[in-house]
Amino acid sequence: MKKAIQVSIVTLFLIFSSVLSAQEVGEQYYFSEDKPKVRPFRIGGKLGFPNLIGGNLEYVTPLLGDKLAVSVDYSTIKSDWFAPEEEEGYEESGDKIDYTYMEGGLNYYLFSPGKGLYVGASYGTIRIDGEMMFYSENSDRTDPGTADIDLTNSSFSVKLGAKLGGLFYFRPEVGYRFTPLPKDYETVVVFNDGYTETRQTPPIDTESSPQNLLYKGLIANIGLGFSF
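Above: the chain sequence. Below: its structure as tokens.
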């Protein structure tokens, strides 16, 4: 954790120092005849953490020599998308967890206007809601109970990424969320007869990888899309 925080501080320092340097050359850039063509609008998808799978929009503003961009990510995954089709005699059972992630932030391209290596700062929110089924810790009870899941986790993040390509692009990103998803989540299990039990349980499996990255605050994703 200490090492991750140190890396985050260094990344933030790079962001601010790069922006200050860009301000000094911004005016010369706009009056230059060699100003490269920039496709400012980008639309694509991302796969990884914390996005899981979702979409991304980016707009490269004319500020700081076409190097400052606004970025928005959105992901939503609903458990009923993967549920079996209802058939005669089919009964719904099991966990039903919906996952939503939304993020907005700024990217600053370090060397070339609107492409190549960039650093970013953003604010994102993870929302997990639904219900999970648990069996009682009391051995005399055989029927499962139901627990409502309602967890919201928001955090500032820093990133290091690269937009590679022109019309079609590839975008790898790594970074760190300062407020990771909590490993322990307290929930109340309610049984059919009204009996309740309080459980400390994660809303997402913490033992398997790569889901475990959500609880360490790490950001790692890959994006694909096109610019225009």
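Helices lie at 2-30.
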